[in-house]
UniProtKB/TrEMBL annotation:
Record organism: Streptomyces kasugaensis
SUPFAM superfamilies: P-loop containing nucleoside triphosphate hydrolases
Lineage: Bacteria, Bacillati, Actinomycetota, Actinomycetes, Kitasatosporales
Keywords noted in UniProt: ATP-binding, Nucleotide-binding, Transport
Gene Ontology MF term list: ATP binding; ATP hydrolysis activity
Ranges for domain ABC transporter: 9-233
InterPro entries on file: AAA+_ATPase, ABC_transporter-like_ATP-bd, ABC_transporter-like_CS, ABC_Transporter_VariousFunc, P-loop_NTPase
Protein name: ABC transporter ATP-binding protein
Pfam families reported for this sequence: ABC_tran
Amino acid sequence: MSDPSPWAIEADGLGKQYRRGWALRDCSFRLPAGHICALVGPNGAGKSTFLGAATRLVQPTTGTLRLFGVPVSDPAVLERVSFLAQDKPLYPRFTVAETLRLGRELNPRWDQALAERIVRSGNVPLTARIGTLSGGQRTRVAFALAFGKRPDLLLLDEPMSDLDPLARHEMSGLLMAEAAEHGTTVLMSSHMLSEIEDMCDYLIVLAEGQLRMAGQTDVLVPAHMLVTGVAVEGGVPEELRSRHTLVEARVTGRQFSALVRPHGPLSDSWEAMSPSMEEVLLAYLRSPDAPTLISDEARFDGNRETAA
Ligand SMILES: Nc1ncnc2c1ncn2[C@@H]1O[C@H](COP(=O)(O)OP(=O)(O)OP(=O)(O)O)[C@@H](O)[C@H]1O
């Protein structure tokens, strides 16, 4: 299928309301094809709900979601998307070989050699029943199924959490190689900030069901500065709040430290340095009310503040 749309994902006012309240609210952003994007947020932020909407497991209450320009409700998108769910559902009575055969029979673009390579490199026997595998080995088989499908969009819900460090390293290498070689778009929810920093070039940050940040990492991260100095009357200097956008402020003894989005030069009376991606993400995770930041590229009308 040719791609009329350069956007792998377009969410417009997407929302999901449960009886207890909104799991996802007024979520609007675009993800261009070919990126590896992290979906980040504290527990309960709405990450799985968003991935559920993208895989039609969750019916949105408001808004629309398009994948490659096609409404997610259109069956045409199904063969282009792979989803690796948090609980990695597989048939426990099937052997690994039978599981891969199922993948082959269900998916026209199936890459058997790739799927087998992923399984074999973890020394998982093709004859073993899924129910007898360790959690990490099952995850490896689930990865093989997801990759073997050769999707254009790979959706992963906390994919690496039960892999050992070597397997994690291997899978993240595979993800990056796939994205580079085939232009696969990856959207991956994760709590592992150092891994995100190593792998991802796009960020979607959610808190309490709402979008807090979206865009290219090399636009979002440099939009921030870490500022430290002497606290004023037990808090951060008023100038930081009035002239710049304050994301997070912390006071320890007589010192303050703050993550800000500067609008113009910062006063010489403070020390300012560029934060790492992990420092930016941690600040947003600790501050669910942080003002929203959407890059131009990721922006849909209605988003509030814009980075370069
Ligand atoms: N089926 C459901 N019925 C009612 N509430 C739900 C349902 N699914 C999710 N929620 C609620 O929606 C909110 C968002 O949940 P979601 O699972 O999307 O968060 P998450 O960011 O994936 O969290 P985690 O990091 O813990 O996996 C939570 O408050 C959760 O309790």
